[in-house]
Specification:
This protein has 13 helices and 16 strands. It is α/β, with parallel strands linked by helices and 497 residues long. Strands 1-10-12-11-13-16-14-15 form an eight-stranded mixed sheet, sandwiched between helices. The protein has an eight-stranded mixed sheet with strand order 3-2-9-5-6-7-8-4, covered by helices on one side. Strand 5 (140-146), helix 5 (152-156) and strand 6 (166-168) form a beta-alpha-beta unit. It binds zinc ion. Zinc ion (ZN) binds next to helix 8. Zinc ion (ZN) is lined by residues 296, 308-309, 342, 370, 414.
Length: 497
């Protein structure tokens, strides 16, 4: 509908205000959670009412984040969180509560990171070490150089110019056409990253800085390749956009730009094991068949890992609580799993699938919650059209609560993916983004302050009712390996050395 002149005024005003407001791209307001007029006198109705009226999801996130804090895999804090989670599972009536260990590699701990310009305005600015990279072992100084090489071939063009330099690895004004995609060949991608790091080390580069993908001082972290002590490592860090672009502008003046940098993070002396936490409610008729509900308990450490992924962990535990509180005994076993190592490459769920590879046929379905506080709108079917009918059946009691979306889309970047790749029907929750991607995801903003309680409660209602439906239905969801699907959100362009 065209805008009438009078109607344009507030819009113009809003645009003006927004242009002046510090937060240029305010996240869209989440759509309101539908309110159910009544609860059907069914098990699904019982679960919906129990969670709406007595959910503990927010309190659990507050405890995980404010009391325990960031939960890097391999850290003491994650061990603390896992001990707490086991206690919660027992308190919530689960049996067979245990941990499953897997080899993780070297643990990593963040230290103090500082950066200061030694030339020009001499300003201090924020830097965050890339996790699982070596620290600078004290303060170092070096001249900056833009090295926007995207592969080993382009990097070799800088041979002889890198000794003692601090390298800018992101070129925000890069106008070159993107390199041809590899078609998801992650191993080749990792091998090239390793070769590029080795080249930089051989050339005597001092450290690398990459630009955070978000504005307004928001930083970012990722990393993990350094778990393997055999992998070469170079000190590396992210810089928020504003100071990073200042460095790029200064380099554009064709004058030496000199930095003082200190990255304090470091590795454990020896490789460590990591753990997945498991608990279940045995099936009343088909205890050998399993519905898995889960999310990763590990997090990054710039914030406290509230929306990534204390929310998904809390929702998974809430499913247990609701089954216990309503006294509902599912037909098939309900198994809740809180994975670790997700942020380093789905390590916990991959280890679980490997360790249980002879039992995968017993899995009815896997449901994973890992997209923040936003309300649940459906599930990714991972290309499994042959599961649509039964999944539609399972979410039918939730349609009035806004859960209708069964997209064929394949999402590869969380813990359902290793099950999916092993031929198991495994689906990721599709959620309202709220300020997940624009704000909290892997940033220093990830605190419970960003929870939207009624959206999170709806997510728990949706996971509990879907799990109940899958546990009760007579039919089994078909297993099977699908031809490789185009994966959405697989490779993280930020992870380049
Ligand atoms: Zn996550």
């Amino acid at each position: 509908m065209p805008q009438t002149p009078t109607a344009l005024l507030p819009l113009a005003l809003a645009t003006l205000l927004q242009a002046q407001s510090p937060f240029v791209a305010a996240p869209p307001m989440p759509s309101p959670v539908p309110v159910l007029k009544e609860y059907p006198a069914t098990p699904a109705g019982k679960l919906l009412r129990e969670i709406k009226e007595h959910a503990e999801v927010v309190a659990r996130v507050d405890y995980l984040c404010d009391v325990i804090g960031p939960r890097l895999t391999g850290s003491e804090k994650l061990r603390q969180a896992q001990a707490w989670a086991k206690g919660e599972m027992v308190r919530l009536g689960a049996v067979n509560v245990h941990e499953e260990a897997y080899d993780f590699g070297l643990a990593w701990t963040r230290g103090i990171d500082t950066a200061r310009l030694l030339t020009h305005n001499g300003i201090h600015f924020r830097v965050d070490q890339l996790a699982w990279t070596p620290g600078t072992k004290g303060t170092v100084q070096g001249d900056l150089l833009m090295v926007d090489a995207r592969n080993l071939e382009e990097l070799k063009a800088f041979k002889g110019h890198l000794k003692g330099r601090i390298l800018l690895r992101t070129n925000p004004d890069d106008k070159r056409p993107p390199l041809p995609r590899r078609g998801g060949d992650f191993e080749a991608y990792q091998a090239e990253q390793t070769a590029m790091t080795q080249f930089l080390l051989d050339e005597g580069a001092m450290a690398t800085l990459s630009m955070s993908g978000r504005k307004n001082g928001l930083s970012f972290t990722s990393g993990g390749a350094g778990r393997d002590p055999k992998k070469p490592g170079l000190p590396a860090a992210y810089v928020p956009q504003e100071p990073y672009k200042m460095l790029v502008r200064l380099l554009g003046r064709k004058e030496p730009v000199r930095l003082e940098l200190s990255l304090g993070g470091g590795f454990s002396a020896k490789p460590v094991q990591a753990y997945n936490v498991v608990g279940e409610i045995p099936g009343r008729e088909l205890p050998g068949e399993v519905v898995i509900v889960g999310g990763h308990l590990d997090s990054w450490d710039l914030g406290t890992g509230a929306t990534d992924n204390a929310t998904g962990s809390s929702v998974s535990l809430e499913v247990l609580r609701a089954f216990q509180a309503t006294g509902l005994k599912p037909r098939r076993t309900l198994r809740v799993i809180l994975w670790s190592g997700e942020e380093q490459g789905l390590l916990g769920s991959r280890a679980y699938v490997e360790a249980h590879k002879n039992e995968l046929d017993a899995i009815q379905a896997v449901l994973v919650d890992d997209m923040g506080t936003g309300m649940l709108k459906g599930f990714t079917l991972q290309g499994r059209e042959n599961c649509r009918g039964l999944m539609a059946q399972a979410i039918a009691p939730l349609n009035d609560l806004g859960v209708k979306d069964l997209s064929l889309r394949t999402m590869g970047s969380t813990d359902h993916a290793p099950f999916d790749r092993a031929g198991v029907p495994a689906f990721a929750a599709i959620q309202e983004p709220v300020d997940y991607f624009l704000g909290t995801h892997h940033s220093q903003m990830d605190y419970p302050d960003h929870l939207v309680p009624d959206q999170l409660v709806q997510g728990a209602q949706a996971m509990a009712v879907t799990a109940w439906g899958l546990a009760e239905m007579p039919a089994r969801l078909p297993h099977g390996h699908l031809p490789a699907q185009p994966v959405a959100g697989a490779i993280n362009p930020q992870g380049r050395p």
